[in-house]
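Backbone-to-sequence.
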């Protein structure tokens, strides 16, 4: 049991982490400026003993009174729609926000975890992606604001480890989906589910042959906490290695929702990666972790959540 600061705690992944930590008996200080998150995601936790929410922008100095055992830095716009709308805020939370939260971890003698991303691999030329692949990122393209912010954040995290001895963990999260995603966040799973449930056309970008791997949020959070608890320093991929084309995903969404929406095709966004699939050999070896929730099952739970009253 410990006291854990979760930045981005009112977001999609962060709120699931807060829940999981409280469930296992940790205390949680969730810090969020509500840029892309919402208190709705954590409202049910407000009465829980050991849960505190602080509305704060972590690009400014972060003060938390009392002991802190771990700092989990999950604050950042994360969907393309969000980071393209907030390019400078995205760069700031990856750079200044990472610096400030590392400062908090150093001050408290706390373990630090950075939420990094498969986007550090950019449009990868190695497939599937292993942690030792350095990536293929366009630094000046529109997506560069997110990819480079996270690459900088990883560099800053390792510099604090090497220069100040901060005990760090870096999780490279691959596409994650599940309840509490925003219906309009522009991610492919939420887009397709919302369109299918509303009987509107499903919009596939390009010809739909680009691949993605989708990890259900419960699996993702279990992997993240296993890494937090482990002794492994250095980036670890946490994602689902089952690869689907975007067109296959569209068809599965139609099947799961029983929708008769048609599939329509739109132009591919700039720098859209053609393929993405984690190599999770390292996570299997050092954490004994692998995902267990099948895509159909995860899509069903997510569809149920989108259809709730
Ligand atoms: N969901 C995924 O598939 C995925 C994939 C790779 C990496 N990640 C990483 O996981 C983390 C969480 O992503 P998510 O999908 O939950 O996104 P999200 O947008 O739902 O959550 C991010 C949270 O960070 C908060 N935030 C943003 N800037 C902030 C700031 N300056 N100060 C304080 N709070 C701030 C937002 O308000 C939001 O609540 C991000 O760091 C993201 O890069 C997510």
């Amino acid at each position: 049991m410990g006291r854990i600061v979760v930045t981005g705690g009112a977001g999609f992944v962060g709120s699931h982490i807060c829940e999981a930590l409280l469930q296992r008996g940790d205390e949680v200080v969730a810090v969020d400026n509500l840029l892309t998150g919402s208190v709705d995601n954590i409202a049910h936790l407000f009465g829980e003993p050991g849960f505190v929410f602080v509305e704060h922008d972590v690009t400014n100095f972060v003060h938390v009174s009392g002991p802190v055992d771990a700092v989990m830095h999950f604050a950042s716009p994360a969907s393309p729609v969000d980071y393209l709308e907030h390019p400078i805020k995205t760069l700031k939370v990856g750079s200044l926000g990472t610096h400030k939260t590392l400062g908090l971890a150093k001050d408290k003698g706390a373990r630090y975890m950075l939420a990094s991303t498969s986007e550090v691999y950019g449009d990868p030329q190695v497939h599937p992606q292993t942690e030792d692949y350095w990536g293929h990122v366009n630094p000046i393209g529109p997506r560069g604001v997110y990819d480079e912010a996270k690459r900088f954040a990883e560099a800053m995290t390792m510099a604090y480890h090497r220069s100040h001895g901060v005990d760090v963990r870096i999780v490279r999260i691959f596409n994650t989906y599940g309840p509490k995603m925003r219906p309009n966040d522009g991610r492919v799973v939420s887009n397709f589910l919302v369109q299918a449930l509303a009987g509107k056309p499903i919009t596939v970008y390009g010809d739909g042959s680009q691949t993605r791997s989708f990890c259900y949020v419960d699996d993702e959070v279990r992997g993240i906490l296993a890494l937090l608890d482990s002794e492994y320093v250095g980036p670890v991929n946490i994602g689902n290695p089952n690869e689907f084309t975007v067109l296959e995903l569209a068809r599965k969404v139609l099947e799961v929702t029983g929708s008769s929406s048609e599939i329509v095709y739109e132009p591919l966004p700039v720098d859209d990666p053609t393929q993405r699939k984690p190599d999770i050999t390292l996570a299997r070896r050092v954490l004994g972790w692998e995902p267990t929730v099948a895509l159909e099952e995860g899509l069903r739970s997510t569809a149920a959540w989108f259809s709730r009253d």
